[in-house]
């Protein structure tokens, strides 16, 4: 196994104990019923994690949207809309931008224009509003990054854990990156170890399964990420060079996400040269940032150069007025999808579909539908 040993600060462990006490008290209040939770009369699927930073929540949410939508269900996605400049409930339109609804919701709405994409920091209120929609009514709600939002009693909790930083090896904030103790994994019906490398060995699956120490009723899956060919962020802008990225290309990777390593590694396998500019998660690009990007890009071979970013960053960059015109023809986004490993895609899909079948709002999903494809 080539998982990373999480970096922890021993100096901050006293603060982590205080933080952990607060988290423990909050959890006990929910367990005792002192803080009200609410269940809803339709399937609600929660995707979340125990750590701060990227575990692949957005691509896994998109996987579920494809799977459920492919079964003819009317899917709604609900997010708090992190770092948006608005408040309250908003149902996204085709012209909604990251400032209005947040980076990840903007990305999903761009990718799935027919999706009912809503944001609300009060998830209970958000679900109530989604249930008011008609023509057609919502069949299932997928909540992104909501494992700690226990005010909503989701019917199916999917917990994501990064292969490179397993929560069983980590510490609570601020000494480590855990939002909740590892014990909280027991609230999930499904646990997914994400971002597994292509060369993962069969024995690694067993080692991780033992370390995760799940209950018999919990299901464990492993997923990896697959990248497609870079797609132009501004397809109407013509550039002088055409063709896919190959070993002759020089690439400037520009990201504003928590964990860009897998993207950089993928591009490194494809390109002759890779330069990197990484900013913080949900970074708002400034004029100074774009000057840095222009300077780095100018150092690459002008006949075989390109800028590649993530789909999430592209959704934000596409709508910023600060982006220089001369960069637009060269700006590409790397599409990403989830791949279920161990030949267990059908089992994973069936777990999701069985939950929805058993908890329908208005109709029952036909039995025998093909669960092989998402």
TrEMBL record:
InterPro entries to which the protein is assigned, alphabetical: LpxK, P-loop_NTPase
GO cellular component, as recorded: plasma membrane
UniProt GO BP: lipid A biosynthetic process; lipopolysaccharide core region biosynthetic process
A Gene Ontology molecular function term of the record: lipid-A 4'-kinase activity
Pathway stated in the Swiss-Prot or TrEMBL entry: Glycolipid biosynthesis; lipid IV(A) biosynthesis; lipid IV(A) from (3R)-3-hydroxytetradecanoyl-[acyl-carrier-protein] and UDP-N-acetyl-alpha-D-glucosamine: step 6/6
One Pfam family hit: LpxK
Enzyme Commission designation: 2.7.1.130
UniProt keyword Transferase present: yes
Residues the entry annotates as binding ATP: 51-58
Family: Belongs to the LpxK family.
HAMAP family per UniProt: LpxK
Role according to the record: Transfers the gamma-phosphate of ATP to the 4'-position of a tetraacyldisaccharide 1-phosphate intermediate (termed DS-1-P) to form tetraacyldisaccharide 1,4'-bis-phosphate (lipid IVA).
Annotated protein name in UniProt: Tetraacyldisaccharide 4'-kinase
Species for this entry: Candidatus Bacteroides intestinavium
Taxonomic lineage of the native organism: Bacteria, Pseudomonadati, Bacteroidota, Bacteroidia, Bacteroidales
Gene that produces this protein: lpxK
